[in-house]
Structures are given as C-alpha cells and as structure tokens.
User: Fold this.
Amino acid sequence: MTDETCQWQGWREATERALYGPGGFYLRPEGPAGHFRTSVHASPLFAAAVARLLAEVAEELGTAEVDLVDVGAGRGELLTAVLAAVGSSLSVRAYAVERAARPDGLDPRVEWTDKVPEGVRGLLFANEWLDNVPVDVAEADAAGTVRYVEVAPDGTERLGAPVTGPDADWLARWWPLREPGARAEIGRPRDEAWAAAVASLAGGRAVAVDYAHVRASRPPFGSLTGFRAGREVPPVPDGSCDVTSHVALDACGRLSAGGAGGDGAAAGLPVAELVTQREALRRLGVSGERPPLALASTDPAGYVRALASAGEAAELTARGGLGDFLWLIQRVPAGAGG
Assistant:
C-alpha cells in the first residue's frame, strides 16, 4: 500500500475511529462478551466480590445508600450481577458508563450514560476499561530518536515525527526507550481519563482492573494487539477487531516504583495502591482452595458445589492468567471530588 492509497494516522486517532467511530468495534450489538472473556464473564464470584467491596465502601461512608459506577460497562453484565448479589442489603444507585447504546431488557434501576457522573459517593469500578482508552505508539529509530508510529487502515506501519512535548515527558518518566527498535504505548491519555474518573468521586473508592505493567517490567516492544472472536489477531484499525494494549497502571495512579501512595500522595491526591487480582480477590473472600475431602462424605452435594466454586475462583486468581491482572485502588475521603 502506498502513501497515495491509504490514510496514515497515529495509533491513538486510528484506534478511536476503529473502536468508537461509525461501525466501530465496541458499538456492535454483541458487545465485548461476543469476542473475549473477562473476569465478569468467567464467574459470578467476581460480581459477588465487587458486591462485598461495595458494602465495605458503604460502611466506610456510614450509609446504606451508595452509588456504584461501572466505567466501560459493556452491556451491563457486571452491574446486573452486583445488584442481584447485594439484594436488599443496600440501596444502590447504579450507573453504567458506556459509549454503546443501552441494551434491551437491562434492569431499569441502571442509569445508562456516556459520561462519568459527578459527585458520586460510593464505588467507581472500571474493569478492562483503560486498555481501550486509545493511545499513541512510539518507537526509537535506528539513530535512537523516539518517533510516533503511524498506521494505515490495513495495519501497515511507518515511523512519523519525533515525539516531543508532554508525550516525550511522559515517556522519559514512565517508559524510557533507550534502544533502537524499542516501542512503547504513550499512556498519558489513560492517566488523564483515570484522573478525571477519580475526581468524580465525592467520597468512596475508585478501582481500575486491567492487564497491566509497571516501570520495572515494561514490555520492550510494547503490547499493542488485537482480539476477535476469542482469538488474538494482528491489530488492524479497521473496526474488524478490538485494538488494545496493556496499561501502565503505576502511571495512572502516579505511583513510584513498587510503592503505594507514591507521587500522588505527595501531591495531595487520593492514596493509591496497586495489587494483583489474586490478592484483591483474596481480601474479598475469593480463593481457589479446594474444599476438604471430608465434606464429600458428609455433604456430597455441598462438596460438588464447593468444588465448582473453587474451580471458578481458581480461574479468577490463576497465575499467568486473570490472577495476574492488576487492581489500582484509590480511596477518596468523603467530601472530596466533584
């Protein structure tokens, strides 16, 4: 393909069009669940854990009336399951933040919106949202100059202008490229999107869950990829597949390497903590431990149910899989934010 027959764009612009433009991948009727399996779809134990987290936040706020905001809500699967798990124990105002149209048959208690509501008191939860906030890609050329990577609609790439300004500052701080051929996704738009989401809270917690990395272990050639119908495919920005990359969650939380709080705490921002999904779910009562074998003789049906639950929990917490996802947790004191 030549310059005359294609439209070259940076990856951020191309991804925005491919995912959210006319006919975009995320606006399709089948939604994300039609193409890949998230923790929400893997087991109802995940929603039950989020329900317990919501109850913790309500207790901290000293109220039985609490807000729950699901950012990147897909087709409302998580909210539907959390509302069912909570039952009548809390009065929940539920908001689904999603750019696709409201699905038919969704629980009428769920408010559907394309913007994060302001003044929320409760839990803001973003499961696999930030990885689909479009970002530009940078690569160090043969001389070591870091340049934007441009892409054509068929996925063909070329190197463009040198990276300068705030993007260059972000790379220098969070993902330095020191060798020719090294690549990075410039996470600044994700940092800004997350900061705005956290700022919407008047009190409670904000939690981002994603496949992610930290400064000490960035992938040397980036992580940009595509997904379609449950399979990893080349990232082609034509609307035919998901275009995604791992998230520099330490940058989103302004965390110094390996620490909790980090630069954000020093700047007076909500204190941040970064833990694996395995640890986060363990704190919420989800583990992959098998039930005691003695239960099989005293309560065979209960043993079978417990064994099935343990299998689901094991998938959610597995090393090399969903358990390696990172949770960025930020606590916002009551009275803060919008």
Observations:
- The first strand starts at residue 9 and ends at 10.
- The chain is about 30% helix and 25% strand.
- The two ends are 49 Å apart (CA to CA).
